[in-house]
Amino acid sequence: MPITCADEKCQNRHKIYVELAHEMIDYSNRDSGQSWLLKKNCSFTPKQVGLFYIAQSAFSLLVASIFLFQGVWLVFPFTFLELTVLAIALVIYAQHATDYEAITLKPNELIVETKYAGKNQAVSLNPSWVRLGRMLSKNKLIEIQYQGKIIEVGRFLHVSLRQDFLHELKKSLRQNSEGFLY
Description:
This protein is of the alpha+beta class. It contains four helices and eight strands.
C-alpha cells in the first residue's frame, strides 16, 4: 500500500498500521483495474465454530452427567443454559465471520460489493460521477456518493487507516478518470 509521509515518525506509524491490518486489506490489480478487499481478521471459520461447539457441548454434558449420576441433578439445567447462551453467541459470530467489502475500480466502472451477515449486495457505479467523503458520525466510515445514494465502506478498517484508504481511493479515481473533481 503506497503511503506518503513527510517525516520518518509518520512513516513508522503507517508501517505498524499496515502490518497490523495486512490481513484486512488485499490490494491487487485484476483485469486492468485495481481492487481492495476489506474483511475481518477472524480466528474461526463458521465450520470451525460448529466443531468447537460440538466439542464444548460434549465435554460440558459429560461433566454434567457425572454430577447427575452422583445425585446432583441441579448441574444439568445450568449446563443446558450455558450451552444455549454459547450457541447464541457462536451463531452471531459465525454470521459475521465471512463479512467483507470489495471495491474494484476498472477503467469505466467502480464496483462495490458488500457482505454483511450473509446478505450480499453489489453496486456498479460510473467512477466519473462518484464523490467520496467521510461520515460525520463517530464511526467515521467512508461514504461513496452516487446519484443521491450513499454507500458506506470501511467497517473492517481500523479508524486510523480509514483516512489513508480514502486518499488512496481518491487518488485511484483521479487517475482513472482525469478532469473530474472528487
